[in-house]
């Protein structure tokens, strides 16, 4: 956090008795609701999540490998005008990401223009030569994007990273809202909150809209999971059930004559659109890793032939790479003709000598990340690290500088959070979800996944590193002027869609 005190999104720089004007009602609710009652509701939510099996896997640990992501009752709230600005920036960024992926596996105009160094693409493990020359149905590769945002002030939002491979967390967004509606209905009488429960319908429509040519009228859509041992299996099952489509494992699919078929008790059925939650490496043993037991042999041939749509497309990892991220302002400008509406966090590319020297000299003050890291792993938060940890990371950067980037340690915004010692500010980030269907026009879901660092002072929000989640309220456009005038019935209907 440095010397600057973090901006609290509810309290501003005041406290529970001096909140930001727009959130006085929420601050009153926190002050007037007995702490014992808040704790009771929190336990009720956790009990429900446990019964539903909403867990995530912690790999490498023998005990408690399946855990519930901690949930906090104090919601994050976005004002309508804030959300409008964010949505514009998200739409622009996702359009640029789709254009970039299409170009980099096609004509590579951005390389011809000298915007990116070619070695950043061709020497990148996330660049899949196997995908080069394939044009996905309708030209869309990143159908589902999760763009991670951080906030440092009232009007200061930054993109922290892009997720265009298999962004997870949407099931928590939906379940968190269900819990809040049930446990804290009074908040939905106070605030008119945009609905999120239409997400499964939006996702299903997105899938149907990108069906291969000739299969648009009644496409068969499925969700492909690697199986119940996967850390996000609950989400795979939840989304398939919510959309009313089949959840399939690789053994349920077979490819014949470049067409994908699903085995059923009534015989084979042709599959048109696959929302796949299997990583590229394991997707097709005939093309990627030959030892994969999680893939569908021949699925890439069907994809190349244009007979099946894969959501998200193979090869998207190049857009998630943190070295590519550092060029996103230039990428957005190249493909949209305008400056990025959502700025990046300042980023130092360790592959460049001058930047590398700065990072090595100031590692104790920076956040250093692997370009292909995720989940909070492969990352050093300098101010929170020991001398030995910094020294170890310095050796790694010196040995393989191309694999690392570094960023300043931001004073991430906080939100009041229930702790063992009562309400206290905790740092948060935010993952909104953006869907792009056959029309090419992205849709921003009016909500998202707020992740919270539950450890005091921690900036690491990942669930695998001890983080939790909150519901994210997006207020309706007129809500800021007339929050208290809404009836309970109206609020509930708005919230439940």
From TrEMBL:
Domain Circularly permuted ATP-grasp type: residue ranges: 75-453
Listed Polar residues bias regions: 479-497
Region span, Disordered: 461-497
Protein's UniProt name: Circularly permuted type 2 ATP-grasp protein
Annotated source species: Stakelama marina
